[in-house]
Amino acid sequence: MRFVSFDVEGVVGFGAVVGETVLRLDSLPGAADDLKGYLADLDGGPADIPADAEVLPLHALRLLPPVPNPGKVICVATNFHEPARAGKPDPDYPIVFTRFAESFTGHECPLIKPNVSDCYDFEGELAVIIGKGGYKIRAEDAMRHVAGYSCLNDGSVRDWQKHSTQFTPGKNFFRSGSIGPWLVTPEEFPDLASVRMQSRVNGEVKQEIRLDQMIFDIPWLIAYFSTFTPLAPGDIIATGTPFGFGSSRTPQEFLSVGDVVEIEITSIGTLRNVIAHDGAGSPQSATAPSQSQA
């Protein structure tokens, strides 16, 4: 099953994707306010889609990140066995940093290149979305806490990222990253050995890897993060990116206005965004639409 959050005529809603339509769930009696609340109500159980849900055409909706309001977005780096790491020992722990919800946008929405930098980069990643919350989760139980998966572009402003040893500034420019197009539930997601991720810029492949090449796999990450912070429904774990992003290439290749970035993951689909100039959107002009009420 696939779930989306969307904006239709200035109102945020969520629903289940069926073909080229969305069965709207937020307008049903007793519905949760948002997809994060819906996942919390499921508590790790299967979704039951009512037959009388309103049907909306998918193409008419502006897609938001599947969970537009995560409580936490925890990201990792240095997380793939790959030729670029040949001869290097595996790290004992991943590099860990956080992103804010406002730093993301959805599928087919513009990514904003900051006007303070010409070092705006792309990073294709798998996003793991938590469905059942927990604290100090054991690795052997971790997959029971996963609501689903999505594509993620960890758009990074490299010079700001390197202002200090802390990544926060370069990872959190407004709408510099994206998540989408939807959340795909685990029963539709195959074993990682058959899942490939590919990043493309203007149609040219820049990154490609099989996701079972992670150094720290999904259960390990869930167990590790939940050791120091409770994970809640809607929280997102970005599982890292392989070699091939712009600053890892020779010569370096950074993004320009008008470039098209696509992140494609087997069984999820393709997250697509066009790079826009700073000023195409702003925190002031991008006030969140009103939340629909059941």
Task: Tell me the strand percentage band.
Answer: 25-35%
Give me the CATH architecture, please.
Answer: Alpha-Beta Complex
What's the CATH C level? Alpha Beta
Radius of gyration (CA) equals 18 Å
Tally the helices: 3
Instruction: Name the overall outline.
Output: globular
Might you state the CATH topology name? Fumarylacetoacetate hydrolase, domain 2
Q: Please state the average pLDDT score.
A: 94
Helix content: under 10%
Order of helices and strands: EEEHEEEEEEEEEEHEEEHEEEE
Kindly state the number of beta strands. Answer: 20
The unreliable regions are: 285-294
Major beta sheet summary: 13 strands, mixed
End-to-end separation in angstroms reads 23 Å
Structural class: mainly beta
How many discrete domains? 1
What does this structure look like?
The protein is mainly β and 294 residues long. The chain has a single domain (65-291), classed as Fumarylacetoacetate hydrolase, domain 2. Helices cover 8% and strands 34% of the residues. The chain is built from three helices and 20 strands. The strands form three sheets. Strands 1, 2, 3, 4, 5, 6, 7, 8, 11, 12, 14, 17 and 20 form a 13-stranded mixed sheet that branches. Strands 9-19-18-15-16 form a five-stranded mixed sheet, with no helix packed on it. The chain starts with a strand and ends with a strand. The model is unreliable at 285-294 (pLDDT under 50).
Essential attributes:
8% helix, Fumarylacetoacetate hydrolase, domain 2, disordered C terminus, 13-stranded mixed beta sheet, globular
